[in-house]
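Help! Submission page says 'invalid entity' but I think these are all valid:
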Amino acid sequence: MRFRFPALLGAALAAAFSLHAQTTPANPIRITVDLTDAPRKLLHAQMTIPVSPGPLTLLYAKWIPGEHMPDGPIDNLAGLFITANGQTVRWVRDDVNMYAIHLTVPEGVSQLDVKDDFLATAPANGFSAGASTSANLAVLSWNELVLYPSGHQSDQVFVQPAVILPTGWQYGTALPRVAPGTEADTKPGADNSVHFDTVSLEQLIDSPLLSGKYFAQFDLAPEVTPKHYLDVVSDGPEDLNLSDDTLAGFSNLVRETGAVYKSRHYGSYHFLVTASDQVAHFGLEHHQSSDDRVPEKTFIDPNLLLLSADLLPHEFTHSWNGKYRRPAGLATGNYEDPMVGSLLWVYEGLTDYMGNVLAARSKLETDAQYRDYLADTAATLDYRPGRTWRDLQDTATGAQFLYLAGGGWDNWRRSVDYYSEGDLVWLDVDTTIRRLTRDKKSLNDFLGIFEGLGGNTAPKVVPYHFDDVVNALNQVVPYDWAGFLKERLTSLAPHAPLEGITQGGYKIVYTDQPNDITLAHMNASGSTNEWWSIGLNATSDGHIEDVLVGSAADKAKLGPGMQIVAVNNRQFTGTLLNDAIEAAKGTQAPIGLIVVNTGVYRVVGLDYHDGVRFPHLERVDGTPDYLDEILKPMTKGS
Ligand SMILES: [Zn+2]
């Protein structure tokens, strides 16, 4: 079942309205967003929309590209007033499609004047609709405010955007500034406004704008054409101090992507990085930019920098894999039609694999850190009992509800596992190609064919289906790639597919010491990780974050949300729990816990005697070291 504006009626209205509300490059919608109240979480917009008299439906973007969900933040749209020639025009919401409003344009009217506000009050989680402003910065996603006539594909609606910034703020965006500005301008005009060229609605929503008091712009890999910029805003000046090594790594990333993807599909590219604890932390890809939001101190704290090492490589890779090459089911051409996520294991899975590989090739992390990441990822997926009932394909098909799921028992439900399991599947593809061709060919050859199709182009979408992926793999080396992929997508085996690690010349081993990545996560969150031993994670004050189904903690009837208040009769600390697990190793004695669950206390005896366990990758001597080959830079600059 599908709940939206009834299809037949919608089609009829679309045909009717295309006559009434046709925007053109010469007669676009004009939108000015005033960010001067962004520090108090209010964005204001004024629009003019060219119209003709008669019935009109205006839309607010619902399905947000890259988020793969119908999560356009319509709940925070407020203060919507529509007038024509100074007279109020009443609107009524569609009974079924919450993202559509209907009105009648009066006779003699050629333009609607629209005012609306966006309440930027969401908490600091989620995606682009999450917290996006602070006292000193704001990230504007245009879909939060823009309304547009129904009945057109998003590349056939034209918009001329402008912003007004708080005094002293600078900005970064992939939008082209009206002449005589240049694409690298970062300062507004004397009236604090910036006017951009007319673009399609698709390009507007694909081009967020970041702005702030503390702003820096860095040129990356200056010898490369087209140009690449790193635009950073933060809550304090210290967070703009990127080291020479970090900047060199991002320049390497620009070079490495050109080498492996054999093309670029943008006029210039802006990494729009927000380093702030006041905003949601995520990355969102666009054709010519990415919205990358990291914790403050990321560029001055090596621990945080390591945890973000793959973020920019991931979002940048999406300019090829996701924006240019896009699964047909996600290339809807508008913001109304439901998206089909069934190929997200390519869109996100391959991107996740390449994001981490490129982090190593670009020297944003060491090869050893990459292997630690891979060990952590593979071991987490190997202890994931939900895989016995939900296959990998279903995590992609169900993406639109799994992104927002949470709260515990994640290992039993599974989540958007096509990201992390994509790492394993595509490593398996990479090492299988290398095995079949005796290391003459690799996934790099597939990427050159698949992402480099057509060479350099302007931003555009070239959709694909499952068979296109299989055909491109067969061009590299003939094999039963369809069977290979389907087996991994539909498997209900209890353990993760680790063949890529084995073929890469490594194996997973467990020791009593966390690897660098596991440790970085524990340090950043303050959590205790006993996942691969007793089967739980807990916060620094003993609150259980999750329990592994089938583990000793599960058998002792522990669950997420409970708090461990004591370990062997002493007040809980993570160190105490870790020591107790080690002390019980090889003995018969239970680990004594006192837990409180919704106000009720209970004494628990944990029957576990195998000691603390953390995953690592270990080289298997005498086997091909394909994993090491994969991480080698392809360019001299790295
Ligand atoms: Zn992604």
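Support: the input was valid. A stray whitespace character was the problem, and the output above is from the cleaned input. The chain has three domains: 7-242+266-301, 328-505+623-630, 516-614.
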